[in-house]
Each structure stands twice: as structure tokens, then as C-alpha cells.
Amino acid sequence: MLSTAGDADTAARIGRALVEERLAACVQLVPGLRSLYRWQGRVADDPEVLLLIKSRTSLFDRLCRRVRELHPYETPELVALPAREESGYLAWLLGETETTLCEGPEDTTA
Q: Which residue segment(s) compose the domain that 43 sits in?
């Protein structure tokens, strides 16, 4: 999942919470973004930090709710992209994220 934050401290606080709560196996912070976007009738030009959030598909709704709770933005970016890999990374990711009672062995998507 992709999200952004206005500064490194906010991004780190959100990322740490997601990993500690096992909603994400890993959150990478990429500083130095410059976001140009339209907001409330004007074009904004702001520095941001990108959060690359590695999680499983079945946790997407909970992950989105938690990011909204932690995020200071009125409308935080929450974009999910499917992942495919061959190196065993997916097995690690699934092992480091929370499972719920409704998930079974068939939950093999990140």
C-alpha cells in the first residue's frame, strides 16, 4: 500500500504503529517527495514522505482504518497495489502480519 505524510516524524510514527500492531510486515519511508496536487480549489505544492506499506490483502480494511486514525491529513492517501514475488519474501510477509479467525491457509496474497 502507498501512503504519504507531511514529514518524517509523522511517517515514522504511523509506520512504527503498523509494524508493532502486525498490520504490516514492513514500512519503508522514502523522504524527499514533492507533491503537486489539487486540494480545495487550489493547486498545492508540498514536501511529503512516501510510506511503502507491505501487508496482506486480507488486512487492507483494518490497515486503512488504522492509518486514518493515526494520520493528521483529512484525506490520507491509501492506494493498494497487488504484489507478486518468487524469492520467499511473501512467506516472510505473511509470517510477520496478523492473521484473523476468518483467514485460512488460502490467504496467500500480499
A: 2-96
In a domain, 16, yes or no: yes
CA dist., res. 27 & res. 46, Å (int): 22
Contact 33, 39 (CB under 8 A): no
pTM of the predicted model as reported, rounded to 2 decimal places: 0.83
Residue pair 93/17 in contact (Cβ under 8 Å)? The answer is: no
* Contact between 63 and 55 (Cβ < 8 Å): yes
DSSP strands (E only) in the chain? 2-5, 26-39, 42-54
Domain membership of residue 107 (yes or no) is: no
d(CA 91, CA 85): 10
pLDDT tens digits for range 74-87:
999 999 988 777 77
